[in-house]
Amino acid sequence: MATDVLTDVEIDQLLSQAESRLREKVGQLSTVATEDEISLESNVAKSKARKPFPKLRHGLDGAGYLKDDNGVAQIDPKALTASAQQDTSTSLPPVEFPQKSKKINDQSSAGPDWFGLPKTDVTPQLKRDLQLIEMRSVLDPHRHYKKNNRKGKIPTFSQTGTVIEGPTEYFSSRINKKDRAKTFVEEAMNTERQNGRFKRKYGEIQAAKTSGKKEHYKKVLAKRKRP
Question: What is the pTM of this model?
Answer without folding.
Answer: 0.41
